[in-house]
Amino acid sequence: MTTSNNHTDPTASKEAWVEEQVVATLFKNWLGASVGNLINIALASYLLIKVFPLQPLLSWFLFGQFLNLARVILLKSYSKKPKLLPSSTWRRLHHLCTTLSGIHFGLLPLLFFHPELPMYQALIILLVGGSGAAAVSTHGIDLTCYRLFLFPSVFPLIGRLFYECTEIYQATAIMIILLVVVMHRAARQTETAMV
Length: 195
What we know:
Elements: H1 10-48, H2 54-80, H3 87-111, H4 118-139, H5 143-163, H6 167-194
Helix pairs in contact: 1-2, 1-3, 1-4, 2-3, 3-4, 3-5, 4-5, 4-6, 5-6
């Protein structure tokens, strides 16, 4: 006895619907994330320009703004024609931009973490750590997406703190590692609850 091919697989339909909802939520949260990025990048650049050379800081600033522009263009395209591309493709595009955003923030402690400027160090630690914490609300529905932002943004900071080889830096690095564990668990719970 043969099975008719006219019937759709309910499991596949459910998975497709869930992916559509996840992608819709990710893009819905993108505008708020982009505005937050815009403000953070502008503030960090305004403060860091006082003590760091213009060229690397300007490159970091422009990279961030170009990325924000790309996100806005993708968001507009998705909002107008969500069926233009499969949900999996929209999701991959979102993941790509999210990864680049994580790398962008991860460059801060590598390029602008001066050992003789503790207040600017604190600024970078708060900006990177705070962005990782805030991303739970915007990326938490997709744990992979959250990891793509969290790990490339926070791990360079942790590495830089350990590199400084003093107790206060190492203690700060350990606290940030604990924060990462808590944020990752919160994102996992958010994904499970929302899906």
